[in-house]
Amino acid sequence: MTVPSFPAGLLAPPDPVALPLPPAARPAPGVRLVRGAVYTVRDGIRPLELDLWLPDEPRAPLPVIVAVHGGAWRTGLREDMGPRFRRWWPGPFARLARAGFAVACPSYRLSGEAVHPAQLDDLTAALRWLHARAGELGLDTGRVITWGESAGGHLAALLALTAPQRVPDGCTVAGCVVWYAPGDLTTLALHLPPGAYDPTDPHSPEARLIGAAIADAPARARAASPVTYVTADAPPFLILHGTGDSIIPVAQGEQLAAALREAGARADFRPVAGADHLWVGLSDHDVEHCFTASLEFARGCAAAPAP
């Protein structure tokens, strides 16, 4: 059987920057939602998409929150901020849009599909796509805040710390919100009770992220750790972490904050008393306070003059 030969250009995927946007929905009063916009097309996997939440009547180019979902790098939904927010109405992203932000919620390759730095590469591509379409969408990508929870917080921190070397001029991460995320994969075992975490386990979420047991690949673990990329030029960070977190210990948040401060960057570390991972154990009032504090931090970053 003869396999037909096609010109290479015929099989090339379309440029996501030139694709038409999906029609906007109205998921809540005062909010538009562009769901499922393709931001990158990579060979051998599904096209990657993001959702964009926008205020219905924006007054000016909008600061952008890039919201990165959690799920131990191996699962998760881009529209999900965690189980404590699933019954909110309006939901958290609609509330952020009502507060005057554009909120981009990207999917990214999970650890069962590709290992680090694939996830960071995908989020960087999402930021580039937003920057390329900023004029069309009414975005100010000179004022980007990354925000993530758990594995998403880890990726939001990596994106914030590496963006200056990876995104076009004029696209600036002005702040980062990190909820209960690992800051240093190489020290997790030191911060948990004996037997709670095995760095030689090749099947832990962290091992699946880097493609090897943490103990067997320390260089890979360091390369996938936010603390590795901390400099004095890092954007301001807000780090919220539960003092009772049994999955990612609070010492991980403390370590990231300490590294930022030691480098001369701004880090606001707020331990959340009694909270376990995913804000388990907090009252509804206290969960809302974590959200509101993070929103106020994002507002401050968006209002600050560019350096």
From TrEMBL:
Record-annotated BD-FAE-like domain positions: 50-260
Source organism of the structure: Streptosporangium fragile
InterPro entries documented for this protein: AB_hydrolase_fold, BD-FAE-like_dom, GDXG_lipolytic_enzyme
Pfam family, one: BD-FAE
Keywords from the UniProt entry: Hydrolase
Protein name, entry field: BD-FAE-like domain-containing protein
